[in-house]
Amino acid sequence: MESAEQLRDRLLAAFPEARVEVLANPAPVAQHSLIIGATHAVQIATLLRDDPDLAFDYASNVTGVDRPDQEIKEKVTVKETVDGEEKEVTKEVTRTEPGYLEAVYHLYSMAKRHGPVILRLRTENRTDKVTLPSLTPVWRSCEFQEREIYDLFGIVFEDHPDLRRLLMWDDFEGHPMRKDYVEPDDYEWEPTPHDAVLIKAKRPADGEEAAPLAP
Amino acid sequence: MLGTGILRGLKETARNVIGSFREKDRLPTVMYPEETVKTKENFRTFPFLVYDGDHAMPGLRCVSCRICEKECPPQCIFIIQERDENNKAVKHPRVFDIDFSVCMQCGICAEVCPFDAIKMDNIYELAGEDRFTGLLVDKHRLAKSNHYYHQIKPTEANEVDGRLAEDKRKAEEAAKAKAAAAAAKAAPPPTAAT
Amino acid sequence: MIPGVSIEEKTDPLQGQILEVSMGPHHPSTHGVFRMDVKLDGERIVSLKPVFGYLHRNHEKIAEDVSYLGSIPYTDRLDYLCSLTNNWAYCLAVEKLSGFEIPERAEYIRVIVGELTRLVNHTCLMGFFVQDLGAMGTPLMYAFREREKILDLFEGLTGARMMCNYMRFGGVRCDLPVGWIDEVKKVIAAFPRFLDEFESLLTQNEILIARAQGVGVLSKELAINAGITGPCLRASGVGHDLRKVDAYSIYSRFDFKVPIGAHGDCYDRFMIRLLEMRESLKILDQAIAALPSGQIIDPKAKSRGLRPKAGEAYGRIEAPKGELGFYLISEGGPSPYRYRVRPPSLINLTVLEDMCLGGTVADAIATLGSIDIVLGEVDR
C-alpha cells in the first residue's frame, strides 16, 4: 500500500486546491493519518473508493474526537524600551489555541486487502461552526456512526440522510462525549461515595441535614 | 419428500430424550438448591481480606495502602487508615468497606495487592433484604482466615504462602546482615592476637 | 388507542391504512432492549427504523476516566457472550499503542480461548435464531447444554463463566491450571457429535427452510458498502475474514477455511455459523497440539499504572459477530484521551431496514435473529 505521503501527493494531484496534510502518529504502530479539508471531502472519499488501485471500499470505524480550546502559556522575549534604555524582557504570554471537533474515518479495502487509511475532518470551532460533509453517500457504514458522532459530540453532518440522535433520547440536551460536558446534578445516596460523589454527599441539601456517610 | 426433515429432527429429539436417562452428558442439570455443582478452584465472586493467626483484626494482612481502592474500576472499596493516639498513621485499616452491590467481581483488587491481603472468595448465595446496608460489607465480615483461603483455593494459597515465607526469610536475612554490619562497625577493630 | 401504535390514513380510503407499530423494547425476539419503529401496510413492512440506546451507559466516557487496566472488566460487558474476544481486541489495541510483544504461549492461549468463545457465541446464536422462528426451547436447550461445557472451561481458567477479565497487555493474566488442556480436549472431541445432531435436527427441517431461505437477502455490494462484517458478510459471498486478511496474532500458522455463502439470506447466515464452528474446532486441535511452554506475559509490559506515550492506534480482530475494533488516542496520561469501540453488532444493523422492506413482520424477526446482535455492544 502507498504511504501516507504518497497518498497525499496523489490526492493533491487530483484536487490541487484541496487541503490534504499528513498527521504523523508517533506510536509504534505508525498509522499516520490525513487531514482533509471539508470542502473536498466527498470528492476525495469518492476517489479513494472508486480508484482501482486504492479501492477503499470499506469504512470500518468512524468516530469523533473533541479537542477543547487550550490555553498555552509561553515565555516570549520582547525588546522593550524602559527608561530610555532598550532591554530584553521575558514575558509570560497566555495564548488560546482554538479547539475543534474532529471526525476520524478508518478506511480499509476488502478488494485489495490493504489499509488503513485514516481521514480526519475538522470543524472550524466547537460552538457554531460544527458542520462537516457527511460521507454516508460514499460509504453506507458511516450512517449510524455519524449519527452517533452527532449525538455524542455534536458535529452536524450535511447531506446525511437521517441525522437524528442515536443513543440518547430526542429531548436530551448537550453532547456527553465532549470534554467539557457537565453531567446533571442528580446525586443519589450511596454508602461508599468517592471523589465527586463524595463532595455531593457532603453538601447539605436545602434545609436538610447532610446525608449520612459511612464512618 | 415433505416432512422427512421434520422426521429426522424428531429422531434427534428422541435420541436426546432416551439418552438423557443413560448419559450424564445429555442431562447435565442438577436439582438446585438440594444439589449444587462444585465450583472450580479458580472460581471467583467477591473479595475478602485474609488474616494470619487466630484473631481476625490483629492478623489482617492489609496495611491500608489503598492501591486496591484506587485501581477498583467501579470504585466499590472504601478505606480509612488507622491512626494511633499521636495521630500517626498505622499500617492497619480503621475502615475497610466493600459495597457488594457495586462490586463487579473482576478480581483486579486481588491482582494488584502487593501484600496478598485481599483475595477472591467463591461464595455466591448472597441475596439480601437491604440494598444498602445489607450489601455494604465491613472489615469484620470481610476478614477470613488463611485457613479458609487454603480450603477454597489450595493451589493459589500454597503459592502465596511460599512467596510470603520467602519474602520473610529474605527480610530476616537482610535485617541480620544489617545488624551484623552495625555490630561490626560498633565493635572495636580486631587487634592482632598476641 | 393502544400505546405505541398509530394509524395513518392513506389518501385512498379503499387502500386501507398504514399501521405504525413499535416492536420492542421488551419483545422477546429483540434479544434485549431494542426497539423497531415499523410501518406496516397490511402484513408488509414499508418502513423500519431501529431505535437504540436503552442500554447505553457511555462505556467510552467511563474508559476516559479509569486506568487502562480498569477498562478490561468493562469490555467484558460489551458483548457479554464473548468477553474473551472483547478483552483480546482491547489488549491488541493497547499493545499496538505501546509496542508490547506477546510471548508464544500467550498467543496460543489467546487463540484457544478465542476460538472457544466463537463456539460459545455461534451455538447460542443458532439456538436463539430457531427460537425466534418458533422452535421454542428444545434446540436452544441443546445449544445451551453444549455452551455450558465451554463455560465450565472458562470458569476453570479465568474464574468467571461470562465476565472473564482474562487478558492483559502483553499476554494473559494467569497460566493454564493443571489438567485444563485435557478437559478442553474432552470437550472439543465431543463437540462434533453435537454439531452433527444439531445439523440433522434443523438444517433439513421444512419449517426452517420455509422461514429462512430467500428471507432477508443482503447483496454483496451493499454488504461491503455498509461495512457489514463477520458471518453476515461472508454469507453474502465475500471472503473477508480478519484471521486471514490481517492474520493477527498467530492465525497464519493454522490451516482452516473461511466458509462463504451464496445467497446472503437468513439460511446462509445460519449455515455459515455451523460451518465456522467446524473450522474453529480444526484451529483448536492444531493450537492445542502445538501449545508451547514458556512465559505468558511480556516482562516489559505492565498493566497497573500503564501510561503509553502519546499517539494513537486502531486494533481490530475477527470477533464472532464481526470486526471488533478499538481505537485509542493516548496523550501520555494514565487513561486514554479517546477510547472508541467499533461495535460489529451496531454496524451490522445498518442494513436491517433494507433487508426487511417488503417482507412480513415474521420475516423481520427472522432477519434480526440471523444478524446476531447483543445489545450490550450495540448501545455500549
Count the E strands of chain B: 6
What is the alpha-carbon Rg of chain C in Å?
22 Å
- What's the overall geometry of chain B? elongated
Distance from first to last alpha carbon of chain B:
117 Å
Order of helices and strands of chain C: EEEEHHHHHEEHHHHHHEEEHHHH
| Mean of all residue-level pLDDT scores of chain B | 84
The helix tally of chain C amounts to 15
Q: Which strand order do you get reading across the main beta sheet of chain C?
A: 1-2-3-4
Largest interface: A-C, 34 and 42 residues
| Classification by helices and strands of chain B | alpha+beta
Report the helical percentage of chain B: 25-40%
Tell me about the largest β-sheet of chain C. 4 strands, antiparallel
Q: In terms of per-residue confidence, which ranges of chain C show pLDDT below 50 for 5 or more consecutive residues? A: none
Mean pLDDT of chain C: 87
For the largest beta-sheet of chain B, the strand count, sense and barrel status come to: 3 strands, mixed
Number of helices of chain B: 7
**Number of strand segments of chain C:** 9
Fraction of helical residues of chain C: 40-55%
| Percent strand of chain B | 15-25%
- Overall SS class of chain C: alpha+beta
Estimated radius of gyration of chain B: 27 Å
